[in-house]
Amino acid sequence: MEFRPTLYILLHSLLVFQLLSASRAREIAKDCDNMHGVLKIQVKEQSTTSPTEPLNTQLNIFFTPKDLKIGKIMPLFFALKDPSTSPHLLPKEEADSIPFSSSNLPYLLEFFSFSKNSPQAKAMEDTFFHCEISAMNGESKFCATSLESMLDWTREIFGFNTKLDVYTTNFIKKSPVTLQNYTILQKPKEILVPKLVACHSLPYPYAVFYCHMQKGENKLFKILLVGENGDRIEAAAICHMDTKEWNHDHVAFRVLKVQPGSSPVCHFFPVDNLVWVPSSSM
Question: Residues in the chain with pLDDT < 50?
C-alpha cells in the first residue's frame, strides 16, 4: 500500500474554522478537561526524566536506524485520538486576541475558569515551559496557536514562496489497543528533504503546536506497520543523525540505552503531530 502525504488533519482544522465563532473561546475550555494525566511525552526534544523514574509506556516510540528493516518487530505506543474531544485550532484573529504567555497565566486561568491547583493549570504551565524555554543549539522553534501562524513560521524557514507538503501518522485499521508489538511490513521509504519542520501538539484549552527545525542531518521516513492483533498504521518517523549536542538526560537515551553522539535517535510521530516539508523536494 502506498503511503501518501496526508492533509486530513489540515482539512479537519479548516472545517473547524468554519464551525467556530468568535465568541467560543470560553466554550472550548471544556476541551481542556481531557488534558490531565500525563503531559504528552511526544518527542519534545527538551523532555527529560529522572534516571530512577520508571519509563512511561508512551515512550515506546523511539528506535535507531538499525531497526529500519522488513520484519523488524518493536513494541510501540500509538495513542487513540478522538477529534470530538481534542482541543480545536482557532482562527488566527481569535487566537491572537487571547494572551499566550506564562506571565498571563493567572488571567488565563480565570478566563478559562480553571483553579490554580487544577490539572488543567499544571498542563498549561508545562506548555508555557516548553514554548518559552530557550532553543537547543542549532534549533529554531515556535509555538503555533493557529494554523495560519504555523504556516507563516514554516514558510519563514523554507522560503515564503515554497509550496508545502505535510506528513503525519495514520491509522489504516485501529483497535482500542495503544501498546503492542508492531512489525515493519515493507522496506521503509526515505523522503529526501533538505530540511523539515516538525510540529508536536501540546495540551492547552485550544490547539497549540510546538514547531521546530533542527539543523544537521535529519532523515524522514514513511513506514508501514502491522500490529500483532492486525492493526495497520502508516507511520511517519524521523531519525536525528547527530545527537552529540543533546541533553545527556534526554529520555531517548534511557529508552535506547545509548549515549549522546553514539547513535542516531529515531522516533515515530503520533497521529496528531505534523511534519512539513517543501513539496519541490518530494
Answer: 1-49, 281-282
Q: What is the dihedral of CA 120, 122, 128, 132, to 10 degrees?
A: -170
Long-range contacts of 2-7 (CB under 8 A, 24+ apart): 3/189, 3/222, 3/223, 3/224, 3/234, 5/165, 5/166, 5/167, 5/282, 6/166, 6/167, 6/168, 6/170, 7/166
Q: What is the pLDDT of residue 214?
A: 85
The pLDDT value given to residue 47: 43
Q: What is residue 42's predicted lDDT score, i.e. its pLDDT? A: 34
Name residue 75's beta-bridge partners. Answer: 181
Q: Are 268 and 61 in contact (CB under 8 A)?
A: yes
Instruction: Retrieve residue 95's grid coordinates.
Output: 487566537
- Residue 168, pLDDT score: 93
Answer for the pair 240, 264: CB distance below 8 angstroms, yes or no: yes
**Residues present in the chain in total:** 282
